[in-house]
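If you are new to this repository, start here. Below is one unmodified record pulled from the training split, so you can see the exact layout before writing a loader.
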Amino acid sequence: MRRVAIIGRIVVAIVGLVSSTGCHAGPRSVSPNDPASPLRLERTIALTDVKGRIDHLALDLADRVLFVAEYGNGSVDRVDLASGKVTGRIAGLHEPQGVAYLAAARRLVVASGDGSVRFYAGDDLHEVARLELGDDADNIRIDPRNGHVVVGYGSGGLAVIDPDTPRVIGRLTLPGHPEGFRLIGARVLVNVPDRGVIVAGDIDSGRVTARWPTGTHRLNFPLSVASSGGWFAVAYRLPAALARYDAASGAQLSMQGICGDADDLFVDDARIYVVCGAGHVDVVSVTPTRMATVRVTTASGARTGLFAPELHRLFVAAPARGEVAASISVLVTR
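And here is the target side for that same chain:
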């Protein structure tokens, strides 16, 4: 939501000031070229003629194609990972935010700030269908049970879309605009930062089942769920912290400081990857007794990404800075 985004930018400035004074020392930073780094920089892919903030990413795993939502540029780029080149662009969009790829139908789904959800052919990117949700269509998830498209939007809701029709076939009403959310079967866990809560719900029945207040920690944007479904992780911006919660009860399992301006979060077995605009990816190793962090440097403003466990790759998007073009860093997990 735009109001929350403005607050977030103010908080990032405060966090950056605090960090620069050394008041909160974090883990030692390492370069992705350092042998001790858990992430190795494989290559950097330039995104030419892209200005402004970059939002979510999506992957066509079969064809090794990455889709990049370029919020500030009003475009979505199609990036061929084999050649490292941009091979197509959708232009003229209003604040594209969420992107997802429907592998079976070979369709790209794009959700934008004007409330539109558009479907494109994956090969030549021509528009094949469009829906209007009303306002601020944002994150997208694909329900693995049935291929339905779940989109967060507006002042508080998730819309369930049948992509074959396409039409909205279900809704879940929320107390505020949804940010990061994840599906566990019919169950959904949703960050609602402008209300300071994490919400659990059922997308089949359209019913909220639990609300867990975040207390003194606010601006909870990214959320990810462990493969077991037993716990989930949330990154906060105020103060900058990473928390793990029991997925059934919402009970807090752990809490620790992390890098500032967290916008994406991924869980892979015993690791958590937190992508932060402060210029780091915090790689947190989770064990039954402790959580150890290695901070890998990226670029200022590189706050969004996508983790592809099948490829053992973490893609991190960096916006243009001065004469330096926007880019995608391809990081290999090790």
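Two things worth knowing about this chain: The first helix runs from residue 2 to 21. The CA atoms of residues 114 and 135 lie 5 Å apart.
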